[in-house]
Amino acid sequence: MLEFLAVSLITILPDFLIRRYVQGKRLGHEIDLFTLWFELRWGISASVILTVALITAIFFYHPTTSNVSSLFRTVSILPESGGRVDRVHVKNHQLVRAGDLLFTIDSSIERAKGETARRRIAEVDAELVLAESELAAANGLIGAAQGAYDQAINELERTRELRRRNKNVVTQQKLDSLENLSISKQGTLDAAIADKDVILARITTQLPAQKARAQAELSEAEAELAKKSVYAGVAGRVDQFLLKSGDIVNPMLRPAGILVPTDSGRGRFLAGFRQISVSVVKVGMIAEITCAAKPFTVIPMVVVAIQDVIAAGQFRPGDRLVEAMDLARPGTILVTLATLYEGQADGIPPGSKCIANAYTDSHDRMASGELGFFGGLYYHAVDALGIVHAVILRAQALLMPVKLLVLSDH
Q1: CATH: 2.60.40.1120, 3.10.105.10, 2.40.50.100, 2.40.10.120. Which one for 75-105+228-261?
Q2: Which H or E run contains 60?
Q3: Which of 45, 133, 192, 384 to pair with 155, CA 20 to 30 A apart?
Q4: Segment holding 127, helix H or strand E
């Protein structure tokens, strides 16, 4: 309507003035309701054509969309393992910081396993102390066995020397007895050394392995115990959190609630523009939005990111081939908008629905001279048409409360 009224000033109005003052036709006589089309056909036809062209140019170079929302993410509050709730430390709608304890699950079994592992470590430490004592005793036995063996060898060598000098002094039986004694003492020494090696193997290999295993069991028990305490991963507000002591929670079937991060969806809006606007919407483009959550307010924005794929075209491999006819719903270009000035979107809760306009700016291209005279003139007119869309957006901002509160059937 605004476009038609603007165009009629340069089409219908001059046509009427020519008919009235040049041709002398009077309103209500030659120009009446029945002859309006015939008398003003050139102005009306030009007005319709220019209005359609104007609307097309405005909506192409200054795209608009009502698919705008400040999307935000949520974090499901899930334990790493299921169980019965032991104690709840926060309340629903409470603000929490990253690392705050939310609730704990009954951990009696994990605590018992941890205590068993600690007792086993203590037992191994005690066995190490005992093995050290046994090693000292084994060293003493080796010393005694070594002394007895050396004495038996010395006695055997002395007896052999006496027999070599005089065979009648030492009998063969005596010599055989001393040889057997030395062999026995050597066996005793070897047995003592073997016992020491066994004790050393226990100290250096067996008991450390047992202690390492007990420590691994303790670490496993502590890890399982840590899973029984659920902490906030990010700062935010706890919602839909109605846990009570004794409730059963499960990471697969029953989450405990939702955590809404504090900074999620603040000052950022996602807008879906039509695909025909691909060549127009660019990063750095100025835009404006108006939201029902903040009526009578137009917020300046800037395009900070454009998704380079259209989500409607995605597919997942399955057991059937993709049929193009099933993709009848046209997708949109996902554009990320950020506030041009910090704090202007304060008061708009995440998830709010808004209306957005984006405005083409060809000032840099015209200043560079690449467009030429006629191209610069054309794009100068295109940029000027943005004011029409800006007026429409402000009219929508004014009428939005009436539309939602009075004319809506909700």
Answers
A1: 2.40.50.100
A2: helix 41-61
A3: 192
A4: helix 108-165
Query: Each residue of 307-358: pLDDT tens digit?
Result: 988 888 887 787 788 777 777 678 889 999 999 888 888 888 888 889 999 9
CATH superfamily of 63-71+265-313+328-410: Efflux pump adaptor protein, beta barrel domain (2.40.30.170)
Separation CA 271–CA 53 (nearest Å): 25
Q: What residues pair up with 96 in beta bridges, in sequence order? A: 236
CA-CA distances (angstroms) from residue 47 to 4, 50, 59, 387? 7, 5, 18, 20
d(CA 301, CA 337): 6
What are the extents of the domains in the chain?
Answer: 1-61, 63-71+265-313+328-410, 75-105+228-261, 108-226
Contact 307, 333 (CB under 8 A): yes
Tens digits of residue pLDDT in 42-83: 888 888 888 888 888 888 888 999 999 888 888 888 888 888
- Concatenated DSSP letters for 154-190? HHHHHHHHHHHH-TTTS-HHHHHHHHHHHHHHHHHHH
Q: Is the backbone of residue 74 left (phi > 0), alpha (psi -120 to 50) or beta?
A: beta
Q: What is the DSSP string of 81-108?
A: S-EEEEEE-S-TT-EE-TT-EEEEE--H
Give burial (CB, 10 Å; 0-12/13-18/19+) of 284: exposed
Short-list 391, 407, 359, 369, CA closest to 57: 359
